[in-house]
Amino acid sequence: MLYGAAIPSINLTGLTQLKKITVTLSQGAAIDLTNKPLLEELFIAGEFGIGGVSTLDVTQNPVLKHYGLMTVAPIPLM
Q1: CB atoms within 10 A of CB 47
Q2: Does residue 2 fall inside a structural domain?
Q3: 37 in Cβ contact with 62 (< 8 Å)
Q4: With b meaning 16 or more CB within 10 Å and e meaning fewer, what string describes 6-25?
Q5: What range does the domain containing 21 cover?
Q6: pLDDT at 22 > cutoff 80
Q7: Least CB-packed of 27, 45, 51, 55 within 10 Å?
């Protein structure tokens, strides 16, 4: 879990064993979830009042069971 102010980007490269992530992202932030085959739970909050990540590709996360997106703008899932 990453708490505090919204962050502009997050680099998860090399964390192939990652199972859960909770993060608050700032507007237009980037998050790369490729090569995360064990990711089961994802929660992303957008920066209050202006939203967060604009798109989210979870096609390479075969065991993703739970995800939550909290933002003021709609987020298309690919």
Answers
A1: 20
A2: no
A3: yes
A4: beeebebeeeeebeebebbb
A5: 7-70
A6: yes
A7: 55
